[in-house]
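Fig. S4 source data, part A: sequence.
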Amino acid sequence: MRRGHSAFVLALGLSLAACGGLRYRTLVPAPPETLDGGWKRIGLETPPLEQAPDELRALGPRQWVRTSYTRAASIVRVDLFGMPSDTSAFEARQKWRSQPGALAFHKGGVLAVCSSETEPVRQLIEFSQTLERAWPSAR
């Protein structure tokens, strides 16, 4: 009887541990590998949330994905933040402070910040619109 009880407790513990991993599910879909206009994705990383900008960290992002896109000599960095809900992504977009050479949009539960040191504002706007159109549905 004791051995059966131990096996049950072990199975229960393993089940709970497996379920605990659900909170780490992917919130940010993989960014498209290519975009209209000849843009190609290069690199893909998940920086620690502790290093996210303070104003976003206060809203509780669940995931941060960073990538870049290149075309000829142009490079655009894209930071993607998986937020707890569509509403919090909208709030993050409203609270995000515009900076020179960067703009943001939200789609579903994801806030996307596009920035570039090489692209003029007009081209950065066009890039972000292209990315937003190509963006896969979140969740």
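Fig. S4 source data, part B ends here. Strands lie at 34-35, 39-45, 63-71, 74-82, 102-107, 110-115.
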